[in-house]
Amino acid sequence: MKKLVVARNIGFCFGVRRTVEMAERLLSEYGEIYSIGDIVHNPLVMERLKSKGLQVVRTPEEIEGERFIVRSHGIGTGTLDCIQKKGVEVIDATCPSVKKIQSLIKKLDNQKYFIIIIGDKKHPEVIGLKEYGKNTLVFGSRDFSKKVKGLEKAAVIGQTTLSFEEYTKRVRRLTSLPLAREVVIYNTICKVTGERQKEAREISKVVDVVFVLGGRNSSNTAKLYETAGRYNRNVFYIERMKDIEGFSLSGVDSIGIISGTSTSDDFISEVKEYIKKIGYREVQYNDKRTGCRKNA
Amino acid sequence: MKKLVVARNIGFCFGVRRTVEMAERLLSEYGEIYSIGDIVHNPLVMERLKSKGLQVVRTPEEIEGERFIVRSHGIGTGTLDCIQKKGVEVIDATCPSVKKIQSLIKKLDNQKYFIIIIGDKKHPEVIGLKEYGKNTLVFGSRDFSKKVKGLEKAAVIGQTTLSFEEYTKRVRRLTSLPLAREVVIYNTICKVTGERQKEAREISKVVDVVFVLGGRNSSNTAKLYETAGRYNRNVFYIERMKDIEGFSLSGVDSIGIISGTSTSDDFISEVKEYIKKIGYREVQYNDKRTGCRKNA
User: Fold this and answer.
1) What is the ipTM for the molecules in this complex?
2) How many other CB atoms are there within 10 angstroms of residue B58's CB atom?
């Protein structure tokens, strides 16, 4: 029997679902709303929201409407001030986990900590976080070692969508520098991301082909893709239906599907339906009926 | 010219000097005073203090006098209570750097941190520190990983006499475990130890023979011995004059001397005089006249 193994943790995470639902409610109420950058990193979801009236701009200057939605990744305090000064109403759809880190940075900043952020310096979450403290620095920035030399108190926080392994790997690299007299390391990695990583690993070991559903511009989806690739040679991004429709599945006995946190349930259902229609039976990973075992 | 290169940082450190001076003052005043274990890790110093009336015992039960001195490495709260309940007067000669860590552990304990101590579990400093918090554990103890799993808040502190490199190495090993949501790492390594380590490294590179003056039972002296041995094949412990008097120095052009923090200035002077008498000229490391250079 041909099998379709579906991850347990799939589709929108809590934070993304909340952001998308808020956007949809606002759009149905007001017809138009602005955001800086994509509010979630998924082209399909963004297309749908744009068709309903979401205006995506790059800078506060480009906002020409009355209402602004803060994306799931959060926004810097400087940019926020700028928007509010224009008289634009701001609706905050920041992911609660990111929101928590922003408050943590503020608190640490008041306590005179120098804040080191581990993450991708070009990711909107990190760009936003940097503005919540006066002394913040992304690990790996230019002259990093010089800038953190002789500190009294340093705090380390991580971008929510890093894998826990990656975060600790970088923390280990960081702690090899002569750092501060006091270093506090917060584990700010989102648990949801970790669970998906784990499933990506497990499923990739037991199937012939892995489909990673989600945007290539989504950090956590990209990391699932990478992880799956370590255990399986046949791993493919599926951003849209056409990516899978052109795919030859002859000789493929088992397919695994996993997704990033910004991939909608609708898209997942559509993909699943397509695969089932061509002869695969859906089994959930970890379900006793799957017969999925390591080394199987 | 035959050279004797003397380390800049040599002899008692501030903490040890304070402990020994306190002990001497008390002995000259009262004639007898008790301690549990050696108050400093140096056999020569201990012999002198014992000859003046210091009574070294192993447990509170063995104290038969009226006064007790707390050794430089500090003492656990349990043992302290025990001694005070006997009606014995306690004079605290704990090294101020160790004292600071004891207070830090107490504070962290009140804030519900689980405290991880990096150090030698058999060293009196570590044995003492453990008693200042309810939840303390020495890194590397049996079932360590199991016991620290799923913690909320963990604090890491190090035995003062570790080298900074050794401390960070173990911190890196520690941070590879799935630890707490919040981990605060304190750099409690005594700076004096670090400076001596650095000198041990530099001097060992440029001399024919290295003499490490101090007790083999002194943790920081042992670490200087280890460090020197990494850069020089001719490294020797000198605990007493007889260790050096039997030594053949034919063909030796340069001698380096370094010492742990519990080695007395008197002993160092005696060793220096001996070496100078047999034809070596004293030069201080880093003094321009030494001509000591790396790769020299």
Assistant:
1) 0.75
2) 8
